[in-house]
Amino acid sequence: MQILNLGCGAKTSNAPEIVNIDYSIYLRVRKLRVLAPLVPLFFRGDRLKRFTEIPDNIMVHNLAKGIPFPDNSVDAVYHSHLFEHLDRDVADRFLIEVRRVLKPEGIHRIVVPDFEALCRAYVSHFDACDMSSGECHRHDSQLFPILEQSVRREASGTSHQGRVRRLLENRILGDARRRGETHQWMYDRINLREKAIAAGYKAVQLQSYTRSLIPGWIDYGLDVDEHGRQYKPGSLYMEAVK
Known about the structure:
Structural class: alpha/beta
Number of helices: 9
Oligomer: single chain
Order of helices and strands: EEHHHEEHEHHHHEHE
Radius of gyration: 19 Å
Distance between the termini: 16 Å
CATH architecture of the domain at 3-23 and 61-114 and 187-241: 3-Layer(aba) Sandwich
CATH class of the domain at 3-23 and 61-114 and 187-241: Alpha Beta
CATH topology of the domain at 3-23 and 61-114 and 187-241: Rossmann fold
Strand content: 15-25%
Largest sheet: 7 strands, mixed
Helix content: 25-40%
């Protein structure tokens, strides 16, 4: 088996069959060893901690340039909370690119925020406000998980920096959208399935964080935390076959 873990961030697997791929600013800085002495000047607090704790088992690659594997070469491709960050036309091309590298009958496992679940939670809270005004002061918070990452202008880490550092980071690195932090679309079990079918996949079906067509999936630990609990609550899990 060979499984690609695309846009892995810090959530990697040490299993020999897993190839973890990411292109975060932390990885790019670490790759340029000449910048290492300057790291404490730019990364502090939680960001410095994230930098120093980056796993060593990550391939540094910009997926905007394609997936660096030959046609029909991998058994499965997995990505979590990556797909919603792609523009819709880019997402279409990404599905086709993943299909290219998969072997026949290979599995594409997609994990995204579940827009249906978010909307149902919002409507449920809306109904609760109609029955009791005591909940109304919290109602705007129900919109946060739906809209915040779509409308945010400044990158989350930068927004907590001092004035001069914020100015420099925004000038050099760009806003949240340029850095790929914002959601460009949201998916539910209907539109994600239709998108996969349109890209030429078959046997598109819902899964869960513990269930997969990939043999032994739960043992890789990519959809669970260190205690075996769901790593990304509120997620939609879907798989498609080439």
